[in-house]
Fold:
Amino acid sequence: MWGGLGDLILMQFAIVDGVRSLPSPKLRATCQYCGGDMISKCGTKVIWHWAHSPKRDCDLWWENETPWHREWKSYFPKEWRERVHEDLATGEKHIADVKTDTELVIEFQNSPMSPDELESREQFYGNMIWIVNGEKFKSRFHVFDPLPDPDSDFAQDLVFFEQRIDRLGRCFWRRSENPGNKSMVRIRDYPEIEDEIWENYIGHHLFQWERPRSVWFNSTKPVYFDFGDEFLYLLQQYDDRGLMAVQKWGRAIVQTWGGAIPETGKE
Structure:
């Protein structure tokens, strides 16, 4: 249970006698980022954590840990969690949610952010991916019919239309039937090629996102949405016309980043 935490900076790790440590009752420590005093909070109503004492500004990019953050971090070795990443040329540093032994940074993002912050964080971390908590917009995010592998020969001849809940359409046209990018094209229906789509399917789907957090369309790094089911949904451009799609990945993909997570997803 979480609640009543205000604007406190909550962390899973702090420095105790020179060692990165998890909180235990009645311990004091220092913040690995700013060096400020931290005190362990080990009650029964809130998951154990470290908090600054007194409250102070720390890493402005830091997003307080929620149960969602804590669960995701638990899939990775402790020594990779909440690691300080520093630009040795400028001295700038920030706390990465996860930084693997291959220098891949994984950021778990629960709240909205500005385009400027997105750009700054991606430039600073470089080799990184985003995991975005989609629970708050899950009811507004509609995943539609499957699409073929965009790199397949089969897909190269097909042009799909964007879909909407109020206008499903499920239509496409063929480049081979409409050479020269004519303004008038022959529209075909999705069921004509449904079997062939499944033969060339590797997880892609059209989607509609009502009132989107459009900042994620500006990302230059992989963005995976977590809606709490057995999949992660990778946001990506599908074709050369800019059509957007998501690609469904089983949660076992986390193992390729060095983590360990059941293929069946969350309990």
In short: DSSP finds four helices and 18 strands in the chain. The two ends are 17 Å apart (CA to CA).
